[in-house]
Amino acid sequence: MQLTKILRIKNFKQNFNYKIAETYQNARMFSKAAEEFDFYINGYEAVAEAIDFSVDKAKLAVILNYYNAKNFNKTVAHCDSFINKYAYSDLIPTVFNIKASAQNFNGDYFAARKTLETLISNFPKSDEIANAKVQLGFTFYKLGDYKSALQTLDDAINNHREKNRYK
Predict the structure, then answer these.
(1) How far apart are CA 78 and CA 64, in angstroms?
(2) CA 115 to CA 98: how far, in whole Å?
(3) CA 69 centroid distance within chain
(4) Which residues contact 93 (CB under 8 A, 6 or more apart)?
């Protein structure tokens, strides 16, 4: 009886902490939302599945909130943490793409190139490939490698047409 009551209280607190994080995110207070999602992860990792918001999804929310807050250093750091801790996740290609974008915004074009090339070679069937190739073309352009930029963008346009259609 007592254990059931404790589990119900823990589930209520978990839902409450998730809602706090979500409220900050909706208010466009992205840094605060990222901190709250991190608190949620650290406090409720063991029972996160109960509300169908897995820990890897919560960590992605942390990453996206730091990215939206334009805190690209924290974005990259949390992406690295995600890649190491949640290597099993189907969100890994998305995290690689976000990491590369943050690296590009930071002007770290060599690192962005490496990240994108890793994404493209390790996840060739991912839905992220078209975006990764466009971003890699941009990265090559910023590095002054205009020939590679044109080839990469041409490949993205010609080989990923279905991803480039606007409805």
Answers:
(1) 10
(2) 10
(3) 13
(4) 119, 123, 126, 127, 128, 129, 132
Distance (Å, rounded) from C-alpha 113 to C-alpha 104? 9
- Least Cα distance to 113 among 139, 93, 132 occurs for 139
Q: Residue 140 pLDDT more than 70? A: yes
- Residue 76 burial (10 A CB sphere; 0-12, 13-18, 19+): buried
- Give per-residue pLDDT as tens, 107-137: 999 999 999 999 999 999 999 999 999 999 9
- Ramachandran assignment for 95, one of left (phi > 0), alpha (psi -120 to 50 degrees), beta (any other): alpha
Q: What is the pTM of this model?
A: 0.75
Alpha carbon of residue 165 to chain centroid: 23
CB 138 within 8 A of CB 149: yes
- Map tokens 């009551």 to a residue: 5
Show Cβ contacts of residue 57 under 8 Å, excluding neighbours closer than 6 positions: 91
137 Cβ contact partners less than 8 Å away, ≥ 6 residues apart: 148, 149, 150, 152, 153, 156
Q: How far is it, in rounded angstroms, from Cα 1 to Cα 132?
A: 52
